[in-house]
Amino acid sequence: MKALDKLIALFRRFPGVGPKQAERFALYVIKTPDGRIEELAESLRAVKNSVRCCAECANYAEEELCPVCADRSRDRSVICVVSQPQDAAAIEKTRTFNGVYHVLHGSISPMDGVNCEGLKLKELLERVRASDGAVSELIIATNPDTEGETTAIYLTRILKDSVPSITRLACGVPLGGDINYMDEVTLGYALKGRTKI
Ligand SMILES: [Zn+2]
Question: Mean of the pLDDT values across residues 79-84?
Answer without folding.
Answer: 97
